[in-house]
User: What shape does this take?
Amino acid sequence: MQVQLIRRKKNLIARFRGELDHHTSEIFRKTVDKELAKNDQVQNLILNMANLTFMDSSGIGAILGRYKQVKARGGRVIICGLKTHNKKILEIGGLLKIIPVCSDESKAIASLD
Assistant: This one.
């Protein structure tokens, strides 16, 4: 799995490529945590899942942990590019009750401005 991070003003965008599972969730967690720790101007997190091919409960846990961190900063988390197969696991995990979903990255950024 690869996680590409992009900063746009006070938003951190994490673009996934590959699988977010028990083998790779640690990569996501460490990558985002490192960026949040070094940059206190980042307030919001956008998770772009357009190229995420698979996710399991470890991915849900990693996302939930970042959600709590961002919320503690007074920010918001938004998911975009969500495919049907990943939407089901997020629904089962209850994340879609607390994290809004936008169709694409530009709409996610616009909703935070």
